[in-house]
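Format notes (please read before filing issues)

Several people have asked whether sequences and structure tokens are stored in separate files. They are not. Every record keeps both together, in the order shown below: the sequence lines, then the token lines. Line labels are part of the format and must not be stripped during preprocessing.
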Amino acid sequence: MKFKKLMAMLMAGTMVLSMGAVSFAEEAETETEAAQEEAAPEDIEKAAADSEVTIGVLMKTMSDTYSNKLGEAIEAYAAENYPNVTIQLMDGQADIAKQISQAEDLIAQKVDVIILNPQDADGSAQVLDLAADAGIPVVEVNTETTSTDYVSYVGSNDAEAGEMMGNFVMEQLGEEGGQYGILEGEMGQSAQLLRYAGLETTILANENFECVATLSASWQRDQAMSTTEDWLSKYPDLKAVICENDDMSMGALQAAESNGRELVIIGVDGISDAVAAVSEGRLSASVLQDADGQASTVVDVAVKVGVGEEVASRYKVPFQLITQDNAADFME
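Then the structure lines:
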């Protein structure tokens, strides 16, 4: 497919990540408009409840709050809806080599289907090569690889999350503009590339707003807190911090509150403590990434693939903006 072929062009090198993100965002938009096989989660019918399938699940990490929630939701949904389906979930611990080794283990066990949550867009593509050689289909979830060999992808359009964050911060700061920083996730992951691309088409393209710093905090709360503390001392006029996930937004919030600074801070995922902070008026906003929606859809897809039924090539789970006005609707 045109979209998947484009993924192979993304990882030309870390020095051109931003350029790759722009082209990826433009292509993603074109593909969304023209897609013939993209479907909404509600468009898929469940496989038979008595389906017998063994599914190996390769999570990039279970230490990240969102990834942990996604992995647990996959297990819970499968247990509730498919009692004869076996789930073997493995934690890649944010290590590409470990994820590939775990894939080899699952292949040796002759699982019927692999659900892959890639650690790295380029590096984790080897999992699909190994699976293809063994004749095992792969369904990707949440993040994508550069490989063209997966059967289906379940996730959200991360460029839209970047656009939502960029537009929100511009609205909050107003026509006067101001300085802001961007905390990025693990470099080279599709979520990092596309969320940044969404920012490039919004706030980064607006000369009224000045990006004074962009740095990866690798999705981690503690790294985001220490980086934001550094920014607060370096940039006394800093008005906002845009975070590519909520663990980082909560770290940025901790730094701001410790320093008595009021900042516009937004992240992605809609994790429970971030939603609570939004409800309390401490965190400006979060962009919900629906872990339960991604989990249920990817399990339904994987089971259907395992029993030989047809599925769409892509299932899009939409993002939602959470502000203080609607935070109560997203409280767990």
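For reference, the curators noted about this record: Residues 17-34 form the longest helix (18 residues). Residues 1-36 have pLDDT under 50 and may be disordered.
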